[in-house]
Design goal:
Layout lengths: L15 H12 L8 E7 L5 E8 L8 H15 L6 E7 L8 H16 L3 E9 L2 E4 L39
Parallel strand pairs: 3-4
Antiparallel strand pairs: 1-2, 1-3, 4-5
């Protein structure tokens, strides 16, 4: 899918086509060799802040503490900006069909944003097949388990994901 909207600096990303155009610009039509999480923060008028952040060395499944830290970072940057949101893109090698792991990242990041009072304007999956948006209902609840044959469970709707908090331990 090719976006028909163009990106104009300091202009709001007013619709899904503009968000897709941003994600396609970030992806650049490359063939990813590793997992990278990209995020762009939007102000209350949906204008992107002038920083695009790629996070490398992204594990296959989300780490609750790492995801919580991302959410806190977004909140610190956007505090005092009512209506702020975040655009997320998980870039990875392989086919374009969303996997269980992709959906787990989707759910974890949406939950982290919600816990900080932010919304996810869009979540994209980028592969060698291109860029595709994942709808909020495509994010499973975190306690969904893989089916016996290893296939990902279907989408779960109406459930707010809850991720465990990290518990500090004492070293001896």
């Amino acid at each position: 899918m090719t976006a028909s909207s163009e990106i104009i600096p300091d202009h709001p990303l007013v619709d899904d086509a503009a968000l897709l155009a941003l994600a396609e610009l970030l992806h650049g039509g490359i063939r990813p060799r590793r997992r990278t999480l990209w995020f762009v923060l939007l102000d209350g008028e949906r204008r992107p802040l002038p920083v695009v952040v790629p996070v490398d060395l992204v594990p296959e499944l989300p780490d609750p503490l790492g995801v919580d830290n991302l959410g806190r970072s977004w909140h610190q940057i956007l505090r005092g900006e009512p209506g702020a949101s975040v655009v997320l893109m998980l870039e990875r090698p392989g086919p374009g069909d969303p996997s269980f792991e992709d959906r787990a990242w989707h759910a974890a990041l949406r939950s982290a944003a919600a816990e900080q009072g932010l919304t996810v304007a869009a979540f994209f999956l980028a592969t060698a097949d291109g860029v595709a948006a994942l709808a909020p209902e495509e994010a499973p609840a975190p306690d969904d388990a893989r089916a016996a044959d290893g296939a990902a469970p279907g989408p779960v709707t109406g459930v707010r994901p809850r991720w465990p908090r990290a518990v500090p331990t004492r070293r001896r």
